[in-house]
């Protein structure tokens, strides 16, 4: 049993590491559903490749998926410059709906492949391969290093776009770099864990940590701890109740979120560490 769960657990640790950080940016920017939109856009790229005869989970399929995600990143960066005309969250929502509808249309021509819809939603993390985990960890390490080196610029654009403009930063460029790196992460994550689990890793630990922590450092540490704890809990639920692993982890994340809300409601005090 340990051998079976080792690599899925390591995959969960890798996902927690990068998504907890990116989730802080997403919440601060107020673009909660950007992960779903980019994930669905990347999934659409995979299906477009499939429609043209490219095997799913192949190198060519990944490149097409990444290309779609980068196109989405460029579109979202441009859309932020039009925020006074159209709210960026509305653009993100419309993109998600369009990409999801297009995916359904493509799959409607191949009903025997409908199982891929399930894989894109909840993934198949229990059967992740060691090479895939190692490759993903290396990619996320590079992206994490990139964000760490330029963290002041990324956070300035996230926290105060006006101040970034006053400092003569190229805001659209840094927006694109953020969404592009985000898209690269999502493209790899969806292939391992599916859209719903990736969204859970990104948003739920970050939201819960903001309820109890003031500083970015504390929020990040708490998010990492919560992500790993929910991963263990979800895997245990999956094994002992014979349930799908990805959906089980998502369910545990949801239960944790409700628990944090109840604790916050009971205390009714804005006490943060």
What does this molecule look like?
This protein has 273 residues and is mostly helical. It has a single domain (2-267), classed as ABC transporter involved in vitamin B12 uptake, BtuC (Orthogonal Bundle). Helix content is 81%, strand content 0%. The protein has helices at 2-29, 34-51, 59-80, 88-108, 115-122, 130-149, 151-159, 161-166, 171-193, 195-212, 216-241, 245-267. Helix 2 (34-51) packs across helix 3 (59-80) and helix 3 (59-80) packs antiparallel against helix 9 (171-193). The longest helix has 28 residues, at 2-29. The radius of gyration is 19 Å and the shape is globular.
Average predicted local confidence, pLDDT: 85
- CATH C-level name: Mainly Alpha
What is the succession of H and E elements? HHHHHHHHHHHH
Structural domains: how many: 1
Based on CA inertia axes, which overall geometry fits?
A: globular
What is the name of the CATH architecture? Orthogonal Bundle
As a percent range, the share of helical residues equals: over 70%
The biggest beta sheet reads:
none
* Gyration radius, in Å: 19 Å
CATH fold annotation? ABC transporter involved in vitamin B12 uptake, BtuC
Distance between the termini: 38 Å
Total number of helical segments?
A: 12
Uncertain regions spanning at least 5 consecutive residues:
none
CATH H level, superfamily name: ABC transporter involved in vitamin B12 uptake, BtuC
Quantity of strands, as a count: 0
Structural class: mainly alpha
Strand content: under 5%
């Amino acid at each position: 049993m340990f051998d079976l769960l080792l690599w899925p657990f390591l995959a969960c640790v890798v996902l927690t590491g990068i998504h907890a950080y990116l989730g802080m940016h997403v919440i601060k920017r107020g673009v909660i559903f950007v992960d779903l939109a980019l994930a669905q856009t990347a999934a659409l790229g995979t299906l477009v490749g499939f429609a043209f005869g490219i095997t799913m989970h192949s190198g060519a399929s990944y490149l097409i998926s990444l290309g779609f995600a980068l196109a989405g990143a460029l579109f979202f960066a441009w859309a932020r410059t039009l925020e006074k005309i159209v709210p960026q969250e509305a653009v993100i929502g419309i993109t998600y709906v369009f990409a999801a509808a297009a995916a359904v249309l493509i799959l409607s021509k191949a009903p025997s492949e409908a199982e891929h819809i399930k894989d894109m939603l909840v993934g198949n993390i229990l059967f992740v391969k060691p090479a895939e985990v190692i490759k993903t960890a290396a990619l996320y390490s590079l992206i994490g290093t990139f964000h760490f080196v330029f963290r002041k610029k990324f956070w300035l654009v996230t926290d105060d776009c006006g101040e970034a403009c006053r400092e003569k930063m190229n805001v659209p460029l840094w927006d694109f770099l953020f969404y592009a790196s985000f898209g690269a992460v999502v493209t790899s994550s969806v292939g391992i864990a599916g859209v719903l689990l990736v969204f859970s890793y990104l948003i739920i630990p970050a939201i819960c940590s903001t309820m109890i922590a003031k500083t970015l450092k504390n929020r990040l540490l708490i998010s990492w701890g919560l992500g790993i704890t929910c991963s263990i809990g979800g895997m245990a639920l999956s094994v002992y109740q014979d349930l799908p692993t990805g959906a089980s982890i998502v369910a545990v994340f949801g239960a944790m979120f409700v628990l944090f809300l109840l604790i916050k409601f009971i205390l009714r005090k804005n006490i943060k560490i």
